[in-house]
UniProtKB/TrEMBL annotation:
It comes from the Bacteria. Keywords: DNA-binding, Transcription, Transcription regulation. GO terms for cellular component: cytosol. SUPFAM superfamilies: Dimeric alpha+beta barrel, Winged helix' DNA-binding domain. The keyword DNA-binding applies. Residues 17-78 form the HTH asnC-type domain. One of its GO terms (molecular function) is sequence-specific DNA binding. This is Lrp/AsnC family transcriptional regulator. One of its GO terms (biological process) is regulation of DNA-templated transcription.
Protein backbone atom coordinates (compact mmCIF):
# COMPACT_ATOMS: atom_id res chain seq x y z
CA UNK A 1 0.00 0.00 0.00
CA UNK A 2 1.21 3.53 -0.78
CA UNK A 3 2.46 5.65 2.17
CA UNK A 4 -0.31 7.88 3.40
CA UNK A 5 -3.06 5.79 1.80
CA UNK A 6 -5.84 4.31 3.86
CA UNK A 7 -6.81 0.66 3.88
CA UNK A 8 -10.56 0.91 4.34
CA UNK A 9 -10.92 -2.89 4.42
CA UNK A 10 -8.81 -3.10 7.57
CA UNK A 11 -9.74 -0.25 9.92
CA UNK A 12 -7.15 0.22 12.62
CA UNK A 13 -8.21 0.24 16.24
CA UNK A 14 -7.13 3.52 17.84
CA UNK A 15 -4.05 3.17 20.02
CA UNK A 16 -4.45 3.99 23.70
CA UNK A 17 -2.21 6.90 24.58
CA UNK A 18 -1.22 8.14 28.00
CA UNK A 19 -0.13 11.68 28.84
CA UNK A 20 3.56 11.01 28.11
CA UNK A 21 2.71 9.51 24.69
CA UNK A 22 0.61 12.58 23.87
CA UNK A 23 3.45 14.90 24.90
CA UNK A 24 5.95 12.96 22.79
CA UNK A 25 3.64 13.02 19.76
CA UNK A 26 2.96 16.72 20.19
CA UNK A 27 6.68 17.50 20.32
CA UNK A 28 7.44 15.33 17.27
CA UNK A 29 4.65 16.98 15.28
CA UNK A 30 6.14 20.39 16.05
CA UNK A 31 9.75 19.38 15.33
CA UNK A 32 10.73 15.82 14.44
CA UNK A 33 14.39 16.81 14.43
CA UNK A 34 14.46 17.06 18.23
CA UNK A 35 17.06 14.77 19.77
CA UNK A 36 16.01 11.95 22.05
CA UNK A 37 17.65 13.84 24.93
CA UNK A 38 15.58 16.95 24.17
CA UNK A 39 12.33 14.99 23.99
CA UNK A 40 13.08 13.10 27.20
CA UNK A 41 13.92 16.36 28.99
CA UNK A 42 10.70 18.06 27.82
CA UNK A 43 8.42 15.17 28.81
CA UNK A 44 10.19 14.61 32.13
CA UNK A 45 11.35 11.07 31.48
CA UNK A 46 14.63 9.33 30.82
CA UNK A 47 15.95 8.58 27.35
CA UNK A 48 15.45 4.80 27.16
CA UNK A 49 11.73 4.76 28.09
CA UNK A 50 11.10 7.62 25.65
CA UNK A 51 12.92 5.73 22.88
CA UNK A 52 10.84 2.62 23.66
CA UNK A 53 7.62 4.63 23.50
CA UNK A 54 8.58 6.16 20.15
CA UNK A 55 9.50 2.71 18.80
CA UNK A 56 6.13 1.30 19.95
CA UNK A 57 4.27 4.26 18.42
CA UNK A 58 6.04 3.57 15.11
CA UNK A 59 5.29 -0.15 15.28
CA UNK A 60 1.62 0.59 16.03
CA UNK A 61 1.44 2.86 12.98
CA UNK A 62 0.76 6.02 14.97
CA UNK A 63 3.98 7.53 13.62
CA UNK A 64 3.96 6.80 9.87
CA UNK A 65 7.18 8.53 8.93
CA UNK A 66 9.32 11.59 9.68
CA UNK A 67 9.80 14.15 6.93
CA UNK A 68 11.00 17.68 6.26
CA UNK A 69 8.22 20.10 5.32
CA UNK A 70 9.36 22.34 2.50
CA UNK A 71 8.19 25.85 1.63
CA UNK A 72 6.58 25.71 -1.83
CA UNK A 73 7.23 29.42 -2.44
CA UNK A 74 10.95 28.96 -1.80
CA UNK A 75 10.91 26.28 -4.50
CA UNK A 76 9.05 28.49 -6.97
CA UNK A 77 5.80 26.51 -6.61
CA UNK A 78 3.63 29.55 -5.99
CA UNK A 79 0.30 28.28 -7.35
CA UNK A 80 -1.85 25.91 -5.32
CA UNK A 81 -4.97 24.56 -7.03
CA UNK A 82 -7.75 22.54 -5.46
CA UNK A 83 -9.15 20.38 -8.22
CA UNK A 84 -12.69 19.02 -7.91
CA UNK A 85 -13.30 15.99 -10.10
CA UNK A 86 -16.57 14.36 -11.09
CA UNK A 87 -16.50 11.19 -13.10
CA UNK A 88 -19.11 9.09 -14.78
CA UNK A 89 -16.71 6.13 -14.60
CA UNK A 90 -16.79 4.02 -11.45
CA UNK A 91 -15.42 0.69 -12.60
CA UNK A 92 -12.32 -0.93 -11.13
CA UNK A 93 -10.15 -0.50 -14.26
CA UNK A 94 -10.86 3.23 -14.52
CA UNK A 95 -10.13 3.71 -10.81
CA UNK A 96 -6.82 1.84 -11.13
CA UNK A 97 -5.74 4.00 -14.11
CA UNK A 98 -6.84 7.18 -12.32
CA UNK A 99 -4.99 6.33 -9.10
CA UNK A 100 -1.87 5.36 -11.07
CA UNK A 101 -2.02 8.69 -12.95
CA UNK A 102 -2.29 10.62 -9.67
CA UNK A 103 0.51 8.72 -7.96
CA UNK A 104 2.85 9.33 -10.91
CA UNK A 105 2.39 13.11 -10.76
CA UNK A 106 4.53 14.76 -8.11
CA UNK A 107 2.53 17.98 -8.34
CA UNK A 108 -0.43 16.17 -6.74
CA UNK A 109 0.42 16.60 -3.08
CA UNK A 110 -2.94 15.35 -1.76
CA UNK A 111 -5.81 13.37 -3.22
CA UNK A 112 -9.05 12.34 -1.55
CA UNK A 113 -12.07 10.29 -2.66
CA UNK A 114 -15.19 12.04 -1.42
CA UNK A 115 -18.78 11.32 -0.54
CA UNK A 116 -21.34 13.63 -2.17
CA UNK A 117 -21.54 15.42 -5.52
CA UNK A 118 -17.77 15.57 -6.07
CA UNK A 119 -15.93 12.26 -6.51
CA UNK A 120 -12.35 13.41 -5.85
CA UNK A 121 -10.47 16.46 -4.65
CA UNK A 122 -6.81 17.03 -5.43
CA UNK A 123 -4.36 19.52 -4.04
CA UNK A 124 -1.98 20.41 -6.85
CA UNK A 125 1.12 22.54 -6.20
CA UNK A 126 2.69 24.06 -9.34
CA UNK A 127 4.73 27.01 -10.52
CA UNK A 128 1.88 28.88 -12.24
CA UNK A 129 -1.35 28.55 -14.24
CA UNK A 130 0.51 27.30 -17.33
CA UNK A 131 2.05 24.51 -15.28
CA UNK A 132 -1.41 23.62 -13.97
CA UNK A 133 -2.75 23.51 -17.53
CA UNK A 134 0.03 21.10 -18.54
CA UNK A 135 -0.89 18.91 -15.57
CA UNK A 136 -4.59 19.06 -16.49
CA UNK A 137 -4.01 18.27 -20.17
CA UNK A 138 -1.79 15.34 -19.27
CA UNK A 139 -4.32 13.95 -16.78
CA UNK A 140 -7.32 14.12 -19.11
CA UNK A 141 -5.18 12.59 -21.82
CA UNK A 142 -4.77 9.49 -19.66
CA UNK A 143 -8.15 9.07 -18.01
CA UNK A 144 -11.69 10.06 -18.92
CA UNK A 145 -13.07 12.65 -16.51
CA UNK A 146 -16.64 13.94 -16.68
CA UNK A 147 -16.12 17.35 -15.06
CA UNK A 148 -13.18 19.23 -13.56
CA UNK A 149 -13.27 22.44 -11.55
CA UNK A 150 -9.96 24.03 -10.56
CA UNK A 151 -9.89 26.53 -7.72
CA UNK A 152 -6.79 28.69 -7.26
CA UNK A 153 -5.88 29.31 -3.64
CA UNK A 154 -5.33 33.06 -3.26
CA UNK A 155 -3.92 32.80 0.27
CA UNK A 156 -2.99 29.97 2.58
CA UNK A 157 -4.63 30.82 5.88
CA UNK A 158 -3.77 27.70 7.82
CA UNK A 159 -1.73 24.65 6.91
CA UNK A 160 -0.47 22.09 9.34
CA UNK A 161 0.49 18.47 9.30
CA UNK A 162 -0.15 18.26 13.05
CA UNK A 163 -3.16 16.18 14.03
CA UNK A 164 -5.21 16.84 17.16
CA UNK A 165 -4.17 14.21 19.69
CA UNK A 166 -7.25 12.88 21.51
CA UNK A 167 -7.22 13.14 25.26
CA UNK A 168 -8.02 10.09 27.36
CA UNK A 169 -11.73 9.37 27.55
CA UNK A 170 -12.66 11.44 24.46
Amino acid sequence: MEPGSADLTNPQTPVRLDEVDRKILSLLQQDASLSLDQIADRVGASKTPVWNRIRKLREAGVIRRQVAILDPNALGLEACFFVLIRTSEHDKDWAARFLKALREREEVVEAHRLAGDIDYILKVQVKNARAYDRFYQSLIGEVKIHNVTALLSMEEIKATSALPIPQAGR
